[in-house]
């Protein structure tokens, strides 16, 4: 078991994850629904706003009565009432008549347009002169202008933005069906790793990966479950991984860069019933020493111990996986912002693997300049310095100074 | 009081908000610190990793002993020990000697480089042949390569990213000083507005703004306090605004687009002791009918009733204000992602005001095409359709088809 070795390409791995199904759904109150992923299409059950509304403060009237009105020859109108906000006007407008109306008010029967108050002049107590013609429906929202009954206004798999909450509110949907948030069990391994509250002795370092990976989970809408540090003992590892898989949808074990632990990780994954190894090594850099296993729709990840490598693997694969589990219709695009920048030096890259280069951005007179950050993937400070990453695909042997690159903000 | 009218430019308003101070600070656990704003500089109190570490699995040795080694003429080394992870090696390396080492292991005394296991061949039980020379420090992280004692690694005013949490962890900082989250009291006004759980009668609409504004708050790291709907009664409004200002840092009252309510809003703001009106109308579209008042570092906003207009005002001013209150060193940039796109039609714009145009984006063979969304600001559906907004500044009279524009994702 321990001897087989399957190095996979990124494409292979996406292929073997693409049938993973979204988790279940739950109902949350609209005030808790921001950035959650909608779990059904929203079909409008009514026209909105549902009545003819004014978009201005002014006078509701029949547009054709204003034709010919001008500053030199204003048309007089009798004011027959005032529209009260939130109420159906109890009068109607006939030829030569108008009604005072505020923004949002309901047009009275017989009115089909609103003249802004700026183009009116009171001449007597109940008479106003209008100095500009309006077209039918001018300054009016029609009864189904916002949404039409039967229209699909929001789609299953959409992360909800503030304006989407607005449309839900307008339809009276206070409880929203969303996909359950994925949960990730986070485990750090390694004899050299100590808890952050402990003073490391020479040869030891504090646990970094639990916190970078936890942060990436939160950023991706995933609930992290911090399981702590496990030493290089097979039974301990097996038991903690088992606990992780029972509590979470994904187990993210990092470290185990020493040869012994690598084997333990693989053996511990395989010791769980029904587990299949998807990859033992991936052809991307940094991040090669990654083990991926699957049991049903749950996956187990043996991430590299180097913080940067583990973060890159998260970004490339786990962001996509969590997008699928979250029910996103476009999982790869979630929380993915890229900007175009110009490289300020050449970058070499080995063909046959994908390279991910850390980038520092500078705004030079409105143009973005991208400086590759050199430095080993074992250094977390290089990620702190970075603003984003650039991907160099398998068939490209490098990039040249002056080339335009897409930098994913990180 | 009710008669004065100060329409202000966006620039005026930024000017009158720029002395607002960040709120207080609090200490949170590192697992709760993602996206919070750091409230002090982080100065490294130690070198990291603090010892010489291997970045590879292989053999630790003295680089100069490998000079001349090749595949045809490999150099033999006596293996004098194995570095145990997390421990100080209890042996040292002399000429012609090496030690087995794993990634992350501490280099023994006398070793200054690591040869990857791939370039070695066991020839006897304790003898290995090395087939490639290494330079001093090759495959080694030096004791202060990650951070140097005394270095400022993170700056006050930075929103914490996953990698920043990593560096805090590496330094043993489990409790982090961050700025307190701003709180916003959200109030909807208008006789025509009903609660989302209520069926509106003709002339009424459900409360949209509480939820779009609440969502924008959450997106900006602000805690929303939903205060509900208040009718067009001066005393009720005054009392709810007073309650809002006592509980929150910012009061966001929306609606009141009818003439009567507009006056109530202004009067209610002025009825609170020590309140100064900063603006009564702003020269941006949509969003003109906005009232802004200030009492000390607390501000009161009478936002437009149209959902789109209120969202634009939030995006232009409140995102900046909340950035300042949150202690961000670059408040305008927070959560601000823009992409460059090409306009697919002309847009007109009146000079003398800033225009904000809703944009739908389409990816046409790797280029972004921006289609302006026409439609009244009273329609929330136009914001749902939009992917972002484009700003047209005061001195520009419009934009032409084919022009490159910066679309802020929204």
Total number of distinct structural domains of chain A? 4
Contiguous runs where pLDDT drops below 50 for at least 5 residues of chain A:
none
What kind of sheet is the major sheet of chain A? 6 strands, mixed
Under CATH, the topology of the largest domain in chain A can be stated as Molybdenum Cofactor Biosythetic Enzyme, Chain A
What is the helix content of chain A? 10-25%
With helices defined by DSSP (H or I, 4 residues minimum), what is the helix count of chain A? Answer: 7
**What is the alpha-carbon Rg of chain A in Å?**
31 Å
- Kindly state the mean pLDDT of chain A as a whole number? 93
Which protein chains make the most extensive interface, counting residues with beta carbons within 8 Å of the other chain's beta carbons?
A-B, 96 and 96 residues
Distance between the termini of chain A: 37 Å
Strand content of chain A: 25-35%
Structural class of chain A: alpha/beta
- Work out the number of β strands of chain A: 28
* CATH class categorisation of the largest domain in chain A: Alpha Beta
CATH superfamily of the largest domain in chain A, by name, is MoaB/Mog-like domain
Please tell me the CATH architecture of the largest domain in chain A by its name. Answer: 3-Layer(aba) Sandwich
User: Oligomeric state of the chains?
Assistant: homodimer
